[in-house]
Specification:
mainly alpha; GCP_C_sf; Four Helix Bundle (Hemerythrin (Met), subunit A); 728 residues; two-stranded antiparallel ribbon
Length: 728
């Protein structure tokens, strides 16, 4: 009984970290007890029986002189003299130390490549890279088997330290805390394995080969967990951590079924808090993001309740464009393809709330799991519900299709008889400088023009006078777009701040623009910035129409066009000018805007979501402007205005020459106008011919269509014909 009690005391004491003096004192006491017991019970001639590992455990204990005390992590542990131990005892001792080492317990026989006292100063990321080695005193066969499992020690320390640091950190964030919990849950199987191994070792049912066999599957698992823990450290957002976890899963081989299942469980558990934020935003329109993890951020003060209705003048497209700020670094990679749907779903719910529109909300739990596309279907449904409702409200209650038709009718001058009647009323007034014009008078003339129209929303059309010409606006806009594409924000700021609009000496026909007033919620689709783009195209069309009107009046009114009868040459020149204006106008309307507006109308009729209409309207306006005015070379628009002024100057010349000059003098000046007109028209054709070489297929086709229309209006040399014909 004394022997068993001493053995138990010894085993318990060795498992604790004791000071060197205390350990020596306990070992001396145990050794003295064993010596006295052996002298009484050992028969003569059995000196070597104490070295047999199959005898009692008390006789297998080494003598005091076989013990060596080594410092391990600041504590002193017993280190047996392996040279005096049999192979079975070495195997048992090695397995015991390996089991402890796999749990992060310091061992005297498993040591790192660096000094023990340096480990406390290293980061967990570096600990995972440390190589552990066995004492060379063990036989080569034992070391060969055990060396395979030694990396497990560093992996476990790295994972366990991440779990402890995260749980102890007050500001770690929900995602990191959930990751630590998920890793801890996955390690439970590892702890169960360690417990089983220790039990089997005590029951002498375990050998080193079996231990390695059972531990080997955990090497890739803990290696992956260690890499996950190491990657999750640092200054990363919750979304970036989730993206890393998702990438870890994608990088695993399909044959690693168990590991992929474990990583997927960690990813699902870790992403649960983030997906809950997504669910509340998409299905309620509520941003509950106390730790600033979500990629959508509300710019309104936190005290502002989302259910509070805004004033009508505040609720507009610009307000909702700036209400929410998007932060891409807070968006997990696995939600990147659904980012627009996620953002717009919550946004439209809040817009409908501002419109006081009731809607039955979706209530479905949202979670992410690799291989399961259920979250994509829920996100899609959550978006379609408010997007469809918003479109339905605009179409049925606010006549959206009619307003879009009006944009074509008035901004593209397609309303039958509108442009001719309006020009007839105000063409004399528009000859004056813009500074002399009164907008209210123009608005009165516009109202008289629309008086007999059956359009019940015709009062939305307004007259405006601009102080900057179209070419300058297009040039500034194109420069700002290049600054954005090149990520040169400083250049963009200089475009808007250092280049203020030039106040040019514009005439009324150059400055006149039509506006269109829309109220909320219609202003979400037809908003001022979009109308400004469309206005530039409308101003060019109106200028061409104004020039064409003057040339037509000059021919039809004898009192004004008597000069045209003086020479045949002047009549031909006037006809070429008129055909040129018609060709330019027909190119913009028939070749560019008409087919695209027809496509827009079909989209509006068939659309199921508001974004289908909004995106199509924006792309239609952008294409009409880009292909009709070719803003990449703003000299094209300048050339159009210059050519138009040549035509207007010719009209003024004819009107002022009645009865004052001889036929010969008139003929000579007509020749000068003819040469000037031909020169500018040729320069336009050469410019368009160069633009036809662009890589953009739509722009190239537009240039070829324009060359085909204008090519018949001028007499070219053989060289000019070949050059232009090659681009048609």
């Amino acid at each position: 009984m004394n022997s068993d009690k001493s053995e138990s005391d010894f085993a318990n004491k060795v498992r604790f970290h004791l000071s060197k003096d205390e350990l020596e004192r306990q070992m001396r006491k145990i050794h003295d007890r064993e010596e006295s017991v052996d002298e009484k019970m050992r028969p003569s001639g059995s000196e070597n029986s104490g070295h047999n590992c199959n005898t009692s455990s008390s006789s297998s204990l080494p003598r005091q002189e076989s013990w060596i005390f080594e410092s391990v992590g600041g504590y002193f542990l017993a280190n047996e003299n392996l040279a005096k131990m049999s192979l079975p005892c070495q195997e048992q001792l090695l397995m015991r130390d390996l089991i402890y080492a796999f749990s992060g317990v310091p061992s005297a026989y498993v040591k790192p490549d660096i000094q023990i006292d340096q480990i406390s100063e290293m980061s967990a990321v570096d600990i995972a890279k440390i190589r552990f080695r066995l004492k060379k005193t063990f036989t080569g066969a034992f070391r060969a088997l055990a060396n395979e499992t030694l990396p497990l020690i560093g992996y476990y320390i790295s994972v366990q330290s991440y779990i402890e640091e995260t749980n102890m950190s007050p500001n770690c964030g929900r995602t990191r805390l959930t990751l630590a919990t998920a890793l801890s849950d996955q390690l439970q199987d590892y702890y169960d394995l360690q417990s089983k191994l220790e039990t089997d070792l005590q029951d002498k049912k375990l050998d080193l080969k079996d231990l390695v066999r059972q531990v080997r599957p955990w090497l890739p698992i803990l290696k992956t967990f260690s890499n996950m823990a190491s990657s999750a450290r640092g200054n990363l957002t919750s979304a970036q951590v989730l993206t890393l976890l998702d990438q870890f899963y994608r990088d695993l081989k399909d044959t690693d079924i168990d590991l992929k299942e474990r990583v997927n469980k960690i990813l699902t558990s870790t992403s649960r808090a983030y997906m809950k934020i997504v669910q509340l935003w998409m299905q309620k329109g509520v941003l509950f993001d106390t730790q600033h993890e979500f990629f959508v951020e509300d710019t309104e003060p936190s005290s502002t309740m989302s259910s509070t209705l805004l004033a009508p003048e505040k609720c507009c497209h610009a307000y909702w464009a700036e209400r929410y700020r998007l932060l891409p670094d807070r968006l997990p990679g696995f939600l990147l393809s659904q980012a627009d749907d996620i953002f717009l779903a919550g946004k439209y719910l809040n817009i409908l709330r501002q419109c006081n529109v009731s809607l039955k909300l979706l209530q479905r739990p949202l979670a992410y799991s690799q291989g399961d596309l259920g979250h994509e279907e829920i996100i899609k449904t959550s978006y379609e519900l408010p997007a469809h409702k918003f479109l339905k409200v605009l179409v049925e209650e606010h006549n959206l299709p009619l307003h879009i038709r009006n944009l074509k009718s008035y901004f593209l001058l397609q309303e039958e008889g509108f442009s001719e009647t309006f020009l007839h009323k105000c063409h004399e007034y528009l000859k004056y400088n813009v500074e002399r014009l009164i907008p209210e008078k123009l608005q009165t003339l516009l109202a008289e023009t629309l008086h007999k129209s059956n359009d019940f929303i015709k009062d939305n059309v307004r007259c405006q006078l601009k102080v900057c010409d179209v070419a300058t606006l297009l040039g500034r806009q194109h420069k700002a777009q290049r600054a954005v594409e090149d990520e040169e924000e400083e250049e963009k700021e200089s475009c808007s701040e250092q280049d203020p609009p030039e106040v040019l000496n514009l005439y009324g026909y150059e400055a006149l623009a039509l506006g269109y007033e829309t109220k909320w919620p219609l202003s979400f689709i037809i908003y001022p910035e979009l109308l400004e783009q469309l206005q530039m195209l409308q101003r060019v069309l109106f200028f061409l129409h104004y020039v064409k009107h003057h040339l037509t009046v000059l021919w039809q009114s004898p009192c004004e066009g008597t000069g045209l009868q003086l020479t045949n040459r002047s009549g031909k020149l006037r006809h070429r000018m008129l055909m040129c204006m018609l060709s330019l106008e027909n190119h913009i309307i028939q070749d560019i805007t008409e087919p695209r507006w027809q496509s827009l109308t079909l989209t509006v009729d068939k659309a199921k979501c508001i974004d289908e209409v909004l995106n199509k309207l924006e792309s239609t306006v952008e294409e009409c402007l880009r292909l009709g005015l070719l803003p990449t070379a703003n000299t094209f628009v300048k050339s159009l205005y210059t050519l138009g002024h040549v035509c207007l100057n010719f009209c003024d010349f004819v009107e002022s020459s009645i009865g004052e000059k001889s036929t010969k003098e008139l003929e000579q000046e007509v020749v000068e106008y003819e040469e000037e007109f031909k020169s500018f028209l040729t320069s336009i054709l050469e410019l368009v011919s160069q633009l036809a070489k662009t890589k953009d297929i739509a722009e190239r086709d537009s240039c070829k269509q324009l060359l085909k229309r204008l090519g018949e209006l001028i007499e070219f040399s053989d060289l000019d014909k070949d050059q232009i014909a090659s681009n048609i």
